[in-house]
Amino acid sequence: MTMLRQIVIVSLLGLRTLRQRLWQSLVLVVGMACVSGVLLSMLSMTEGLHRAYLNYGDPRSAIVVSRATIFEILSAIPREQARIVTGAPGIAQAPDGSPLVDSSLVTGVPAVLRKNGARSFITLRSFGPKGQVLRPTFRLVSGRMFRPGTHELIAGTKASFQFRGMALGDKVILPDGEWPIVGTFTTGDLLDGQLVGDTETLMQSIRHKTYSMVVARIASPDAFGAFRKALTTNPALSVDVMRLRDWNAKISADTSAFFHIAVYGVGIILAIGALFGCFNTMYAAVESRASEIATLRALGYGGVAVAISILLEAAILSVSGGLIGASIAWLLYDGVQSGFGSDVFTLTVSPSMIGTAVLWAIAVAVLGGILPSIQAARWTVAEALRAR
Amino acid sequence: MKYFPLVWAALRRKPVRTLITFLSVTVAFTLFGLMIGLNDTLNQIEARARADRIWTVGRFNNFSMPITVARKVAALPGIKSVSVMSYLNGYVGDPKNPSGALMADDAYGGMFTDQLSPEGWDAIRRDHTSIAMTRLQAEHFHKKVGDTFTLIAPQAVKADGSNVWTFKVGQISEDTLQVPNGMIAGSYDYYDRSMPLAQQGTIAEVDSVVADPARAAALAEEIDRLFANSANPTQSTPEKTLLAVNNNFGGLNIGALTREIALTGLLMILFLISNVIAQSVRERRAEFAALKTMGYSDGLVIALVAGEAALPCIAGAVCGVLVAAGLASQLPGVMPRTFGIPAPVMSPTVYLWALASACIMAVASTALPALRLRRQDIASVLSGRA
Predict the structure, then answer these.
(1) Largest alpha-carbon pair distance within chain A?
(2) Using 50, 70 and 90 to split pLDDT, how confident is the model at A329?
(3) Per the CB < 8 Å rule, is A121 touching B61?
(4) Binding-face residues of B in 325-364 toward A, CB within 8 A
(5) Residue B113 lies in domain
(6) Based on the domain organization, do A182 and A323 belong to the same domain?
(7) Cα(B111)–Cα(A264) distance, rounded to whole angstroms?
């Protein structure tokens, strides 16, 4: 108890004299603000993209792609194989008794990015008869649905945010002429940045002989095993079967691994810089408070209490810097819409990310403050008085 | 130079403080090196892109066009030569280990010596059943010349019914900037002849060289117009446009982003060293007053302080970029293999920028203490009244 009291008294004394060491202390605050500001700004993008992929599509769905495919666009499932998949066990049924399964096509259509005029591709996906039912969050926002068999498209509400010429009424150049966008829709996930058309019409037009994937709603969570087994053991098929969520994690794994290495790499380097700043700040603080510390020690305050109070001061400065940086990142980026190619998503600065920034700040304070605090604790009264 | 011992003595007085300054500058320039280095590398790739090459692919991303597209492109006036290639995608051993080879015709090798060395292309030309690979790929798959490379390609089933493609490693080339993740190349003729008759004559890409680079963009449009209403619409892009930094990263302005991060690091450390210099000057006011008394001019005293700042800054900048170069060389081993972004290479430009920034930092961190030094009154400082 006395220990705790000592720590409180010494810390309060230290904080009261903080104003005299304002510029010194700002080094640590500014340093940590830079670290957390940069870290959270970058994380807002990688986390936003990561979440968008995790929440993409209906979690009850499973996806069938050709064997060993790493991108949707490289997958090819011939019609006869798709037919076998449609008849597999474990697929949920629509009220009319038909299986909830849809074969579709994914391709890229050349498009120009609104942001910088660069050439890119917008993802064009197709819906078969069950395409809409398999996406329960699908909702038309304006215009109407495309009519199967006609050269019409609908666009996600965010497609025109990312690309030029993708709004209602615009025309997209595809084979067989210009295809009008007759409606806009939202699903609340990555599909919002894409174009959707009718499967058979599109395949005919762009002369694809194979589907890209088959998506099926699984009847119950236990049914997935049977569904997968039926397809992967069938010698007529050469496919991979995955839960949709697992597939999304798989196709975004490399992108997110890359971003994580980049973001945390930059963050760690900056944090090491802040650590030196912390060391310098606390070292100077200990030096300038030498006589104060000596007096306290002479009065009977323990070395440990002094050391802990120094660390506490470092932590307070560091965490306040961290929070300043986090608030800047939050103000600038939280909720802002962003895009990466055809992936349109929302930047996120979540409470847990702010928690991460605080943890980093504490780590910097402890690692940078430990040596100065040990020095303060080990000073004998005489030495400290002389250091003045 | 004669003042060097003076500066050195000042730096040695508080070795911990000097070390901290040096180390923090090193850290800031490690980040600077990685960021500006990446930027510089991307710019170099753009600069090295050949202005006279056009890449033509299927407009709707299906990686398959009939080879006649190449013949028609070759017939266009202004096109000097044409080559074709296809991709053989699959995996090595396990689907978790994706790989692929670019199967190019003989003309391709003559055109793209910036992807693989001429010897590499020659090896494929001499023996169509061989492949050539860059060092990065060879190291990843532990291959040396003469080894067998087996690729399982589920979507490229050969005429004999097998999807197992076996090649001999004919040559290993050094990696080039233009192909950051390395490549494996084989013979298109061999690939084509191995496929079932119905699938022969299919290509993924036509690459052409134009006679006049200034007309590359116009010719690219002309090619696309030629196929606009055909069964195989094309998407042609001059290589300069395709490899432009701006054109990649899905709209992310990577140049601005890297510069901002590098600048944040520098500003953070600038704040730190400004404080260190200010503190050091504050502690030695009497010393500076003594120097002035001995006839040192204001300018000289300030120059001494600036020198004190510049020495650790410049040393830190050089060390920082060296550390960055070391880290960058480790990156290919850490980064995922299918998400390609080149590892930064520290060119002389990066070192020059680092040195310039270090000098600016030294001057900026000295500015405030210098003002105070100029204003100080010698008599009052020495008598201990100020």
Answers:
(1) 93
(2) very high
(3) yes
(4) 334-339, 341
(5) 50-242
(6) no
(7) 40
